[in-house]
């Protein structure tokens, strides 16, 4: 795991590192990305520094955060923004999803987030040597 310089020019996904569903989602993004994403568990010092100190937010473990070139997105908006950086038909999710009001999207997001530990067991694949350079601590 690395620390990267000039994070304002990067795409960083902050996720619950203790969640099997979240880890599977990270692996899915690694397998389908067309843009470069970096990943940091919410439990990391790096996440605390970026989200709590620099952005002034309290980290919520049920929340996915996405820092895209200096702008922080949360929950459903983060998911939709991330979909734009994936290969295949996934970017269309952004254009379909964004037409719904944020409160509706976040209601669905919260529904899934509260049940995420039941959706998938807390198992995760180890990233390859090549993939490890995209993980931040």
Describe the structure.
There is one protein chain. The chain is α+β, with helices and mostly antiparallel strands. It has one domain: Glutaredoxin (3-Layer(aba) Sandwich), CATH 3.40.30. The protein has 7 helices and 4 strands; from the N terminus they run βαβαββααααα. It has helices at 20-32, 45-54, 75-83, 92-97, 102-114, 116-119, 129-132, and strands spanning 11-15, 38-41, 65-68, 71-74. It has a 4-stranded mixed sheet with strand order 2-1-3-4, covered by helices on one side. The longest helix is centred in the first third of the chain and has 13 residues, at 20-32. It is globular, with a radius of gyration of 14 Å. It starts with 10 loop residues before the first strand and ends in a 5-residue tail after the last helix. The mean pLDDT is 87.
Rg, alpha carbons: 14 Å
How many strands appear in the DSSP assignment?
Answer: 4
Structural class: alpha+beta
Helix fraction, binned, reads 40-55%
Q: How can the largest sheet be summarized? A: 4 strands, mixed
| Number of contiguous helices | 7
The second-level CATH architecture is 3-Layer(aba) Sandwich
